[in-house]
């Protein structure tokens, strides 16, 4: 397992799904998955997807600036992302940082166990 | 009421940045041979190389001011992922630097944690 390859593939897939079909993120989370979104804690795939689908914008585009990854032990991969989030109709893009802890599934792919998202205000 | 995991995360963050800002060589006590640091994209392993990197950063004094701390239990038994954002103030510099950092903490037998994974990035405006 090459953590860099896993991280890159995951990041590409995650944000393209987010930007085109947010409900499709459901199969990246499981019942034990945790999301902390701007300090709000959400548990489980259903609740997480409900939160993301319910965000107050229809269209968005993530532009990724940096991706760092490391193996976390126990077969997991930690991914640390920074980038910008462009919302339709907004002049200025929002800056964000996000970390994922990916764990292997029985089928040989990865799901998100831990997800923490923060906007970067400067 | 704050959850236990948030208390542990906050206690670690307070301790880590206090050491960083007051006794940088002492950070070596927080890493183990398996620890990994990625500092602005540069990958570093081993306690010696990690502490050498941190001790050789091009400033003698600094002050971390923490804005946000988010913690979650990781898959590792008793493990915690901690996500931090804040600013780094260097003496003589008018503008401070904004940064984000994540730690994956793993418990040692005595109930103390060490940093298994550490990733640091400056947030450029």
UniProtKB/TrEMBL annotation, chain A:
Protein name: Nuclear transport factor 2-like
Protein's GO biological process: mRNA transport; protein import into nucleus
Swiss-Prot/TrEMBL keywords: Cytoplasm, Nucleus, Protein transport, Transport
One Pfam family linked to the record: NTF2
Keyword RNA-binding on entry: no
Species assigned in the record: Durio zibethinus
Compartment annotation: Cytoplasm; Nucleus; Nucleus envelope
Any one GO cellular component localisation term in the record: nuclear envelope
Keyword Manganese in annotation: no
Predominant localisation class: cytoplasm
InterPro entries: NTF2 (IPR045875), NTF2-like_dom_sf (IPR032710), NTF2_dom (IPR002075), Nuclear_transport_factor_2_euk (IPR018222)
Biological function: Has a role in nuclear-cytoplasmic transport of proteins and mRNAs. Facilitates protein transport into the nucleus. Interacts with various nucleoporins and with Ran-GDP. Could be part of a multicomponent system of cytosolic factors that assemble at the pore complex during nuclear import.
The NTF2 domain, residue ranges: 6-119
Assembly description: Interacts with RAN1.
PROSITE patterns attached to this UniProt entry: NTF2_DOMAIN
Automatic annotation (TrEMBL), chain B:
Entry keyword Transport: yes
Domain of life according to the entry: Eukaryota
Statement: the UniProt record of this protein carries the keyword Protein transport: yes
Keywords: Cytoplasm, Nucleus, Protein transport, Transport
Domain NTF2: 8-122
One Pfam short name: NTF2
CDD domains in alphabetical order: NTF2 (cd00780)
PROSITE patterns for the chain: NTF2_DOMAIN (PS50177)
Coiled coil: none
Biological processes, Gene Ontology terms: mRNA transport; protein import into nucleus
UniProt-annotated location(s): Cytoplasm; Nucleus; Nucleus envelope
InterPro entries recorded: NTF2 (IPR045875), NTF2-like_dom_sf (IPR032710), NTF2_dom (IPR002075), Nuclear_transport_factor_2_euk (IPR018222)
Record's GO cellular component terms: cytoplasm; nuclear envelope
PANTHER family, A to Z: NUCLEAR TRANSPORT FACTOR 2
Subunit details: Interacts with RAN1.
Role: Has a role in nuclear-cytoplasmic transport of proteins and mRNAs.
Name the record gives this protein: Nuclear transport factor 2-like
Originating organism: Durio zibethinus (Durian)
């Amino acid at each position: 397992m090459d953590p860099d390859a896993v991280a890159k593939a995951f990041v590409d897939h995650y944000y393209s799904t987010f930007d085109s079909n947010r409900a499709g993120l459901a199969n990246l989370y499981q019942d034990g998955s945790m999301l902390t979104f701007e300090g709000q804690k959400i548990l489980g795939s259903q609740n997480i997807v409900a939160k993301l689908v319910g965000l107050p914008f229809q269209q968005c585009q993530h532009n990724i600036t940096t991706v760092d990854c490391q193996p976390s032990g126990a077969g997991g991969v930690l991914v640390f992302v920074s980038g910008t989030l462009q919302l339709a109709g907004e002049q200025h893009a929002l800056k964000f940082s996000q970390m994922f802890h990916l764990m292997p599934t029985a089928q040989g792919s990865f799901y998100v166990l831990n997800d923490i998202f923060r906007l970067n205000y400067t | 009421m704050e959850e236990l995991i948030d208390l542990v995360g906050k206690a670690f963050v307070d301790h880590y940045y206090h050491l960083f800002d007051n006794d940088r060589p002492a950070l070596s006590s927080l890493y183990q041979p398996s620890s990994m640091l990625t500092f602005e994209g540069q990958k570093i392993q081993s306690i010696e190389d990690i502490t050498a990197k941190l001790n050789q950063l091009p400033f003698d004094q600094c002050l971390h001011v923490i804005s946000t701390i988010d913690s979650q239990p990781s898959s590792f038994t008793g493990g915690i992922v901690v996500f931090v954002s804040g600013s780094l103030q260097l003496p003589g510099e008018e503008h401070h630097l904004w940064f984000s950092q994540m730690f994956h903490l793993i418990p040692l037998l005595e109930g103390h944690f060490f940093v298994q994974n550490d990733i640091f990035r400056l947030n450029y405006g």
